Amino acid sequence: MNRVVITGMAALTPIGNDWKTVATNLKAQNSGIKRMEEWASYNGLNNQVAAPVDFSRPKHYSRKQIRGMGRVAMLGTYATELALIDAGLLNDPCLKSGQTGVAYGSSSGSFDGLVDFTSMLLSKDRGSLNATSYIRMMGHTCPVNIGLHFGINGRIIPTSSACTSGSQGIGYAYEAIKYGIQSVMVAGGSDELSPSQAAVFDTLFAASTRNDEPEKTPRPFDRDRDGLVIGEGSGTFILEERSRALERNAHIYAEIVGFGTNSGGVHVTQPDKESMQLAMRLSLQDAGVDVSEIAYISAHGTATDKGDIAESQATEMVFGKRTPISSMKSYTGHTLGACGVIEAWTCVNMMNENWFHPTVNLDNIDPQCADLDYIQDDTREINGQYTMSNNFAFGGINTSLIFKRED
Known about the structure:
By secondary structure, the protein is α/β, with parallel strands linked by helices. Helices cover about 35% and strands about 20% of the residues.
């Protein structure tokens, strides 16, 4: 089995588009949640808070280059460019060697493409469509656009699995290298902000309506939470077979040593603690490490009642009460297809700097949640060799990743 390491990373988030800015905001407990004044025009939409990213089309991207990209694909493509630069592989011949692939996902394609088709159906006039409408809308728009933009011609693994899109992308990329199928993989996820996404959770009574206090929501694991907040963003990891990375003297951020994924097979939207805990155990088994060796857990932590309770109970089933845990979604909202990679990126960076962020707005732990070691109020110094990042999605899809600090 090949060993798999991370040699490049980048993320675009509601609290910053580089690690220095994100780390500063995490330490200061600055949230990226804002009131979306324009959403007030949607009749019946109760949720009017969200977490946008400060991002627009990069000036060096020509109109020809982006004609098949909606915002979701552009976010993913630019994060990938930054990660390839970080890894020293932008324009490297390996990208066109057949030995580099892409495992990347989003919860959906861009909504502007969907609007084109919806307009046709409602007006019975094809005039709203153009040659790129479907390319922007399709579920695998991110990996396809990334492959086209950088000329990557290895295997494409689309991971459109809602909230586990990014973490499945990392996991499947890790397996592609581990089992000798590819030498290098671009991995991650992306999602763009849309009121239609907020409406999904609003109809399920799972979206926060704390519209006048955006800085006080979401509140993962807190007794007074009132639902999740939608965000947007993207993130990319460049993964390589370890001996290849060492041979070219690449900087190694961490090694991926464990990946577990499964499906609950119980309910399309209701979380299942039994399958959640099994995903964690599968990851630990893959890594060959004991629960006592995990120094920190990055929680999915959406701030929904059933989600928080099930996740915390599943975590206790595996780890007991000893392992520190916190949720980044308290700062960024739920970035959907991007959350798995953004949270993993944060987890790896914090592991390398020996500190971990608290869950902001966690003032009173919900007594229905398990009695875990929740990081509250301030950052915590922790020096550990292994960290775990967990995500859980609609459809009962669960993922768990384990990272090891490079020796």
